Amino acid sequence: MAGCEYRPYGLLAELTYRCPLHCPYCSNPIRYPIGSELPTEVWQRVIAEASDLGVLHIGFSGGEPLLRSDLPELVNAARKAGMYSNLITSGIGITLDRALELKTAGLDNIQVSFQAEEAVLADAIAGASAHAQKLKSIEYIHQAELALSLNVVLHRGNIDRIENIVTLAETLKAERLELANTQYYGWAFKNLAGLLPSREQIESAGRIVAAAQVGLQGRMEVVYVMPDYFGDRPKPCMNGWGRRHITVNPIGETLPCPTAGAIKDLQFDNVKNQSLRWIWENSAAFNRFRGTAWMTEPCRSCEFREKDFGGCRCQATLLTGDSAATDPACSLSPYRSALEKWVGGNPESWNPGALEYRINP
Amino acid sequence: MIEPSPESPLQPNSIPGISPRARIQTDKVTGNPVLISQESVLILNATAADILALCDGKRKVCEISAKLATQYNAPVEVISTSIVTYLTKLKQLNLVSWRE
Which residues of chain A neighbour B92 with C-beta distances below 8 Å? Predict the structure, then answer.
């Protein structure tokens, strides 16, 4: 644990699982952990402790974090602790007063999700009438002079619209656009068959994004997250387990990654009972996949083992049942065939009615 | 299709400022100044920190160059070239902008 090998830079503060949207790709757990949401004073303590551990970025997320009336107090705690704060929101619930209040509290950036570039499709994906309210929220965000990012989760139903989505982000004067292919955890894994795009769709989208990144350089940062089902090498998930990131969920459970609840043999310590530093240094869940000693073959002797850290533990669990297996997104994985059945075929046409939409706890 | 759009290059009279989505912060662990934005942390060396401290949205590039040339006891042309190179790089990352 010595030195900078294990230093958290980011804290994801999931303030609530409640959300006005019902996106079928939500990364929230399908079975929500049971317990009451953390009170303001515990979050304030966690924020101060995170800063002392070296955290520089805090993301306020959920669910919909605007449903917490104490959000400005928590933003202010982050500002006082010297952290860069980002509000990850659906945009539903932003008024001009709320935007000004968050700006005054010290919020650095607000990231609004969009589901598509136009209302009919966007609302069908969100399972809620949301698109028009989101557009209105952007006006308030600009009036409050908050820096704006947009993020759009990509899947079979909207990936062919990617050029229009980029145009929307330009029109809305976003400083940053994150186009992230769905990561198949939580609700998204449940809906994998209905969401996964075809290889042709992925390749076409990649070409359009590459052109946009050149054309918009200096005006809007365009970030593209590839779907790792289609690659040869796994992603260096979380930049290594328990190495750079901490997630605290709405009831105070503290996780090395937001979806680690998918790994059933892990027990998560709670900030109600322990300090964040104690958890970072001692929690069995954080120590479980640190270093390389936990690895199985082919990772254990692989030259890339300290570059990609064996890939994603949640994905390995979901696709192989073994949390210590090589991520099947790696072409060297003996379980690679578990992916081939998804990426090899021709997906059915887009049918949002067949998806299972996220429900609230 | 999105066409590349030419942005006006940095001129001696341009007035640079840090983008509203970024700010300078001291890293508590290392003591280093960092330029921090969403999902990015750039560690600033002493020169970079000196340049950005003067990019306050009020000073012109020529004024910043003159001030640092005096501070470093170096030719203003050399300082000016370094500033233009550095700020142009940060502009590509959408971390600074300037007005004429």
Answer: 217-218
